[in-house]
Design brief:
By secondary structure, the protein is of the alpha+beta class. The protein has 22 helices and 29 strands.
Length: about 800
């Protein structure tokens, strides 16, 4: 996908002072992957393995009256068949870490978070189409699928709730009988005096905007493989998970094992985007089966399962109001947010509170009233997906900004400019609490500059002149703008361990696995910089719970901030140890030595020197320790657990120029601009790739993708024939730029950016389409903006 970027920007960052940070180093992992030498879970052939296939509910809500597996047990190749009764002794599944409410937030806002444990296999009733009811283990997947056809389940259908608004009604049937209603979470907050601000405002706009449901849809679907080591009895699990340490602990808890008895390895992962960042029942049943059956077990999801039975995301309803003075300065916001959780509360406040604390975006709004409710329905459960609550809330706020601009007769970009927090105000306190319960603060940023560059690149005067010329052949031009902030670097910690091997190589182990982020390159750049060694001698291991016993995972735009800074600190400490060891070898004081490009040498010309490989090779043999000065010891290794003191706030401004055909409803993106700020950039090429990927998924949600349910709870878009995912052919050229305001929250000054590209596309394209269809009086309140929906918007507006 071509880009129109500033050519001087790339050149400047590549011409450094010898530092690895800031260079567009080609990704070291790509050669292996592009040659087909990746090792995904499905590539790991375990001798004697059996394969699993799950029988999933065809009903959205029903009692299970009976399950008969007699015929399935006698089918060819079948090893075992389990129902809910066979695993009733195992605890139901809870995503414990995601459901935990930070103590500070609990004390401040007292949010409601209700637990809904999910049985590993449904035994009393099913709550959504796709819920696992039985599992067959057979010699291969084909035989397992055949045996599924022989499992006889008798269901008694129950009333179905799909619309979260109906689920909140007083007479709505309960999904979970132990709960008083269908509310999963609830939290509210106020800042200032919003009621008085609304009462005295010059202008007020009230709207309802909806973010529709869609799916992460990674190239590689979910997969897990497990075996019991024959001598130690330990469980080894290969998984496409984003959070191997949490998976390890959940498996150990479920099976009654010590965490040390479970080894989880995140293999190569073909995309995660949050969908693989949570816990699923399949990930607990497969390891249990490996122990119980006594053979390795493999399960991998097919595409229909991924679309209908893996987690969904995005579905929110915002009833939002903005109040402004006569100059267009916003004085208050009020928002009532409803989040469709699906059948189970999997991640608690994560998405709802992300939406709450990102609603204000880069704007200065002194009075705030936000109320969020998460609702249970008979649909697949919802969890974080790239952006995790931010695309939804940005859609609502930016759409409301556009409506306010129209109400006041102010250009949408000008209205935004009048309300932006300025760089001189940093750090800026919003008055809200962040996800940890601490006062929310924007650590750094230059929001006006982001907008200025986006407006300049969009060439607004020329585009407005084209609009005044009128439509040509029924094709209307429109311009949209959207801005966002993103609190990145979620804690509580991340781990990095660096070892110098006997061969003189550097082994870096981090707790964050990669699903395409390029960790083996960017983390190696950080380590090379911190230690003073060549990049090519660094080996990076991520997502192995034996290599790093403590870790959190690659979610929430946190890997670079947390694992990167842990790597930096561990590297600096290892550098000290290398210089100390070299000083003892060379018989000089360490104060007179320096380490550069893998060689320790005197600071003065002509002094003694020793290479890292030689130093490591001459290390003392085991059992014969070398005397030291007591400061470091002889092992050249370090482990660091980095705990961020707060969030590093990234930000961005998007602009889009579109052409909308009033006859066909087709939306064509003519120009897409993105200007982002992620602090210091470690690898500009990787950063650009991350932003590009996020925009691709955001455009998919804006124009193509939607997971549709019928009123009976049946998914209507369960294959790629109906669920449209954009390809490279649908992606426009991207006009990209960036600014750099380093974060003071960490040593490297970095901010996360993996999710940023996905946050604004829905809002910016909705604004552009609405602008194009202004002659018809169209208001865009939801997506995706498919041709049929665009035509319906025009028809509806014409009737009113």
């Amino acid at each position: 996908m071509p880009h129109r970027s500033d050519p001087h920007r790339q050149h400047r960052q590549d011409q450094g002072d010898g530092s690895w940070i800031g260079r567009s180093v080609p990704r070291v992992e790509d050669d292996r992957l592009l040659r087909g030498n990746g090792r995904y879970v499905d590539d790991i052939a375990l001798p004697g393995a059996v394969e699993a296939a799950f029988l999933r509910s065809p009903h959205a809500h029903a009692r299970i009256e009976s399950v008969d597996v007699t015929a399935a047990l006698t089918a060819p190749g079948v090893v075992a068949v389990w129902t809910g009764d066979d695993v009733a002794d195992l605890p139901a599944m809870l995503n414990q870490e995601e459901l935990r409410t930070p103590p500070g937030l609990a004390a401040l806002l007292d949010p409601l978070v209700r637990m809904t444990p999910m049985p590993l296999l449904a035994h009393d009733k099913v709550l959504y189409v796709g819920q696992p009811v039985a599992v067959v283990f057979a010699e291969n997947r084909y035989l397992a699928e055949d045996a599924l056809e022989l499992v006889d389940v008798r269901y008694a259908p129950l009333p179905v709730l799909v619309d979260p608004r109906l689920s909140l009604a007083a007479d709505a049937p309960l999904l979970h009988q132990e709960l008083p209603d269908n509310t999963a979470v609830a939290v509210a907050t106020r800042v200032g005096d919003p009621d008085a601000a609304f009462a005295g405002a010059h202008a007020v706009v009230s709207e309802q905007f909806e973010s529709h449901r869609y799916v992460a849809s990674p190239i590689e679907t979910r997969a897990i493989s497990a075996q019991v080591e024959p001598y130690s009895g330990r469980l080894t699990i290969w998984s496409g998970t984003q959070t191997p340490h949490r998976l390890r602990d959940a498996i150990a808890h479920t099976l009654g094992l010590e965490s040390a008895a479970v080894h989880v390895i995140a293999a190569d992962v073909g995309g995660g985007f949050g969908q693989k960042g949570i816990l699923y029942v399949e990930e607990l049943l497969v390891p249990h089966a490996a122990r119980r059956i006594g053979r390795p077990v493999l399960w991998r999801e097919d595409r229909n399962e991924n679309l209908t039975a893996a987690s969904h995301a995005r579905e929110q309803i915002h009833r939002i109001e903005l109040a402004a003075d006569a100059e267009g300065r916003i004085v208050a916001v009020r928002d009532r947010i409803t989040v469709n959780f699906g059948a189970y509360n999997m991640t608690g406040l994560v998405v709802p509170y992300n939406s709450l604390c990102h609603l204000l975006g880069p704007y200065r709004i002194p009075n705030v009233d936000i109320d969020v409710v998460g609702v249970l329905t008979n649909t697949a459960f919802a969890t974080p997906y790239r952006g995790a609550g931010r695309p939804e809330t940005v859609f609502a706020m930016e759409r409301a900004m556009d409506r306010l601009a129209a109400e006041l007769g102010i250009a949408p970009e000008e209205l935004r400019a009048r309300n932006l927090v300025g760089p001189q105000e940093m750090p800026y306190a919003t008055g809200l609490a962040d996800r940890s319960g601490s006062p929310q603060s924007y650590d750094s940023g230059n929001f006006p500059e982001l907008l200025r560059r986006a407006v300049a690149k969009a060439d607004v005067p020329q585009r407005r002149a084209q609009q005044r010329e009128g439509a040509r052949d029924g094709k209307h031009l429109g311009i949209g703008f959207a801005m966002y902030i993103e609190a990145t670097g979620l804690g509580p910690f991340e781990t990095a361990r660096i070892d110098i091997t006997p061969g003189g190589r550097v082994r870096l182990a981090i707790g964050t696995p990669s699903q395409g982020q390029g960790h083996r390159t960017s983390m190696a750049q950080i380590a090379a910089d911190a230690i003073g060694v060549p990049l090519e001698i660094i080996d990076v291991v991520g997502g192995d719970t034996d290599a790093t016993p403590f870790g959190v995972g690659t979610i929430a735009s946190r890997a670079l901030v947390n694992a990167g800074n842990a790597t930096h600190r561990a590297g600096r400490l290892v550098r000290e140890k290398i210089i100390d060891a070299a000083a003892r070898r060379l018989g000089v004081t360490d104060g007179g030595l320096d380490l550069s490009d893998g060689v320790v040498a005197g600071k003065e010309p002509g002094g003694p020197s020793i290479g890292l490989a030689e130093l490591a090779a001459r290390a003392p043999l085991p059992g014969t320790p070398e005397p030291t000065d007591g400061r470091h010891g002889t092992e050249i290794s370090e482990t660091v657990h980095f705990r961020p003191p707060g969030f590093a706030v990234a930000s961005g401004a998007h602009a889009a120029v579109v052409e909308v055909d009033e006859h066909t409803g087709e939306v064509e993106i003519l120009h897409y601009v993105v200007v982002h700020d992620a602090g210091n950039i470690v690898n500009p090429m990787i950063a650009e790739g991350q932003v590009t990927g996020g925009i691709a998924q955001g455009i998919g949600g804006a124009l193509y993708e939607e997971m549709v349910y019928g009123p009976d709870g049946q998914p209507r878009t369960g294959t790629y024939m109906d669920y449209l995912v954009p390809t490279s052919s649908e992606m426009p050229d991207l006009d990209m730029d960036e600014i750099h305001t380093p974060s003071p929250m960490n040593d490297l000054g970095v901010k996360g950016l993996g999710e940023g590209g996905a946050i604004a596309p829905q809002a910016v394209l909705a604004g552009a389409v609405e602008d194009a269809l202004r002659p018809f009086g169209v208001i865009v309140r939801r997506g995706p903006l498919s041709p049929s929906r665009v035509r319906e918007l025009i028809r509806t507006a014409a009737r009113t």
